[in-house]
Amino acid sequence: xxxxxxxxCLPGRIVNPARAVRKSLEKLxxxxxxxxxxxxxxxxxxxxxxGRGKIHEVHSKFNFDGTPGNTVIxxxxxATHGAPSDANAHPHSDCLGTIAIVHNxxxxxxxxxxxxxxxxxxxxxxxxxxxVVSHLVEDFIRKGLKPxxxxxxxxxxxxxxxxxxxxxxxxxDKIFFAKKDSPLIIGLGDGFNFLASDxxxxxxxTRRIIVLRDNEIGYITPTNVVIENIVTEEKVNVxxxxxxxxxxxxxxxxxxxxxxxxxxxxxxxxxxxETLLGLGPEINRAAELILKxxxxxxxxxxxxxxxxxxxxxxxxxLPGIMSHAFISxxxxxYSKIADSNDLLVAISQSGETIDTLMALRLFKExxxxxxxISNVIDSAIPRESDLTVYTRAGPEIGVAATxxxxxxxxxxxxxxxxxxxxxxxxxPSEYNEKLSTLTKIPKVVEEVILKNEALALQLANxxxxxxxxxxxxxxxxxxxxxEGALKLKEIAYIHAEAYPAGESKHGPIALVExxxxxxxxxxxxxxxxxxxxxxxxxxxxxxxxxxxxxxxxDEIAEKLDFTFxxxxxxxxxxxxxxxxxxxxxxxxxxxxxxxxxxxxxxxxKTVTVE
Length: 610
Ligand code: AGP
Hints:
Blueprint: E1 3-9, H1 17-27, E2 35-42, E3 45-52, H2 55-62, E4 71-77, E5 92-93, E6 99-107, H3 110-119, H4 131-142, H5 147-156, E7 160-168, E8 175-180, E9 185-188, E10 192-196, E11 208-211, E12 216-220, E13 225-229, E14 243-244, H6 249-253, H7 260-266, H8 268-278, H9 282-292, E15 295-300, H10 302-317, E16 323-327, E17 342-348, H11 354-365, E18 369-374, H12 380-383, E19 387-390, H13 403-422, H14 428-438, H15 441-463, E20 468-473, H16 477-492, E21 495-500, E22 517-521, H17 528-540, E23 544-550, H18 554-557, E24 562-566, H19 574-592
Bound molecules: 2-deoxy-2-amino glucitol-6-phosphate.
2-deoxy-2-amino glucitol-6-phosphate (AGP) is lined by residues 301-304, 348-350, 353, 356, 399-401, 490, 606-607.
C-alpha cells in the first residue's frame, strides 16, 4: 500500500506546489514510508527527485520544496516489488525522460510486459512493476498516439490493481490518472486540482472531492477534470460525482475511523485480496523447499506465533507433513538439534523481531534453509532468509496485529495447498479449484465484519467489567482462541487465557464460577460435538458462555449466553474469517475501558530487543 499525490495548479494559485505535494505526502506516510519521490514539469522538462528513506530524510537530501513547476506528482512507497532503494523509489520514467509516473497497487503481468518492451529496446532502471507503464506510454507515443490516447492504450495492457498518476512534458498542464482496485480521489480546487490515494493529502486545500471508481481513467488540469470508463468508454458526468467531506485532518488520516486499529480491521478484505493477487512463483519454490526438508520448524512471536500454529495444523492436515512451531525466544533449545537437513519457517510481519531473527541465525549457522513470511519487503528477517513470501497488507500502524495475521494465514494456506499438490495428495485441478475458493475470502470477511461489529460493541459492555476470561477451541480453533485472547490482553488489559477446550477438566475449570466469561470458537469440524460438551461443562458452573459459530447451528446457539454467527465456509479458512470478530471484541472492550487501542501501555509495534 503506497501513497500517491498529484497537483495541477495555475501559476501562483498555490505558492509552492512542490512543497504542497511534499506536505500532502507526509499526510499519507501511514500508507508507506520506505522511499519517496516527486516529479515536476518545468520549462518543458521533467525533474525527478527521489530516494530510499522517510520523507524528511529524502527531502533534506534533495530539497523537494526548491523544485519549481506547477504540475507535480509525488509518491511515498510501501515496497511490494523491488526492494526499497533509490532506483526503485517512485516516480519512474521512460527512456527519453519525457514521462514520470507514480503508482499504488500490483501489476500482475509486469514481467511479460517488461520482457516485450526490453525486446523493443527499452532500457529499465528499476526492479519495480510500475516502470513498465511509463515505457508502455512512451511506446505508444512513438507510434504516433497523442499522450492521453497513448496512456489509455497502455492501461488497457495492464492487469492487476493500480492507482496511477502520470505526467508528460508533451502536455505540461495535465496529470493523467487511472484507477482499479487501489483508491484514488480527486480534490477539486479553484485554480488547482489534486489527485491522491486518500483524503488527508489535500484536506487543508479543499473538501470537495470525487472518489474515482474502478476502470475510470482521465486527467486533471488546474481548471478541468475529465473522467471516462476505460471499459465502456462512457464519459463521466463530473459534477454529479462531487461530494463534500466534513472530516478533520486527524480523522482523515484514519479515513474517518477513530483508531488505526479499527481501520486496519476493516482493511482486511483489501489486504487479503492484494496478498492473494501478489503471490507468485515464490510459492512453488517455498513448497519445494519444505518438501525437500527432513524436518520443518516454525519460529515466530506473539500473533505471528499463532499464525505459526495455524501453519503447523495446515501442514499436518493438508499435505500430511509433521512440523514444529515454537516461540522464537526459545530458540536456544534447538542449538544441538537443528541441522542442514532442516527447514525453518520464520514468520514476522515487521521482519525485525529480534527473537525470530536470532532463531533464524541459529538454524542458518547449523546449515538449515530458511523461508520467511513477512509484510515488510527487504526487512532484516527476509534479508537473511533463503526465500521470502510476502503478505501485502500494507503498513500496520496499530500496535495490535490484525490484517497482518489474517494475510499471514492466507499465505500459509496457499503454501500448504501447493505442497499438497506437489506431493500428490491434491490433483492440480483440485488445487486450482481450492485456490479459486480462496478468492471469495475477502467477501466472506466483509460479511463477517458487517454482521458482527455491532454485536462486538454490545459484548464489550459486558466484558469491560471483567478481569478474567477463557478463550477455548479445538483443532484449528486453538490458535484462533489464542489470537483472540492475546488481542484482549494487549489492548484491554484483561487477563485472557486460551487453551484447548479438552484441557478444561485438567485444572483450568477450577477457576470458573458464576458469570465467569468463557468464549468458544466453534468450528464445523470433527471436534464440534466435543466442544458442545465443553460448553455444557461451563454452563453447569454458571459461566457466561460466548460462542462464535456458523449459521445453522441453532441448537448450539441456544445453549450460549451470547453468539456471533458466520457464513458456512471451507473449514480451513476459519482462522481468517473468525479472527476479525475477536479483533473487534478486543477493540471495543479496550475503547469501553477508556484505553487507546493504537498505543497499548508497555508495548511496541516491533520488539527489536531480546
Ligand atoms: C500482536 O498483536 C503483537 N503486536 C505482537 O505479539 C507481535 O505479533 C509480535 O511482536 C511479533 O511481531 P512480528 O510479527 O513483527 O514478528
